[in-house]
């Protein structure tokens, strides 16, 4: 036999009909017949008595008043902050900005701000990225401004005039302050040193600079040293490199690059001059307008101050301890030591290196404070004019 189906409204009408017709039934018995609670039965009867059959229809559960609704002025400000900022802020950043603009008002929650943006069509779904496994041996973290700077070249792109642009970016790790975003036409050492010298004179010198293993920050020479990193060492800066294939070890810088790519390179400009102007606008917005969650929603400018170590006009020669054996690197990259030739690197031509005996027959080779590698002569016929090499 077919199932007997009743719509909710039909059930209510039948319930009221039985209540009107069968006066001998109690409310409890009538509710048991229709499998409803006595509270529901009394509610239907009351609505029928007050409004007739129309009172049996389902009523909206929407609240009559909204005491916690977001004022129209705040809604407009949320949309304005989203649309008029150089770097499009998300719900967290907008909430932080509202706290600054309206200190005496409680800002809407992040989910409420997101819902407003979504309703206005200002939120676009993004493709989920595959995350890297967390590196279990982190590099030394920074605890103050200028303790660690990070540097990298954001991927090259072609300007509309056909020239290739290689943006050099330099950022303070602690405050996220974007120190430089320089549009270069090459990744060559001379051009990069020129950009660094300008930034060093403006902000002073850091203690360490972290980079990847690409040109011009590193090379295949002993100790991974390059002409650029050798210049840093002479200035007293410790070069620090991440592991190959581990960009997450410089994650703050990579995250900044993602924002830079989105707002300052698409679409590209017609010339280097116009592209640099666009980089400067992005730099100002990133440093002075965009609050960072990791900085308690402060801007990088509020957390950064220039280094107390100024850029020197002249670079002094290295001073090694008296127990070091000091040698000068020849044009072919070698030094003469104990009647042997030891290849260091041609990149240090004319520079002085120091050799320290750290164990019987084992020497550590230094360039200023930076250890290039070690030399093991225990199995070598020292003094016979043989050719020695450094082991990293």
TrEMBL record:
The keyword Transferase does not apply. The keyword Endoplasmic reticulum does not apply. Residues 141-308 form the Integrase catalytic domain. One of its GO terms (molecular function) is DNA binding. Pfam families: HTH_32, rve. It comes from the Bacteria. One of its GO terms (biological process) is DNA integration. Keywords: DNA-binding, Homeobox. Gene3D superfamilies: Ribonuclease H-like superfamily/Ribonuclease H, Winged helix-like DNA-binding domain superfamily/Winged helix DNA-binding domain. This is Homeodomain-containing protein. It comes from Cocleimonas flava.
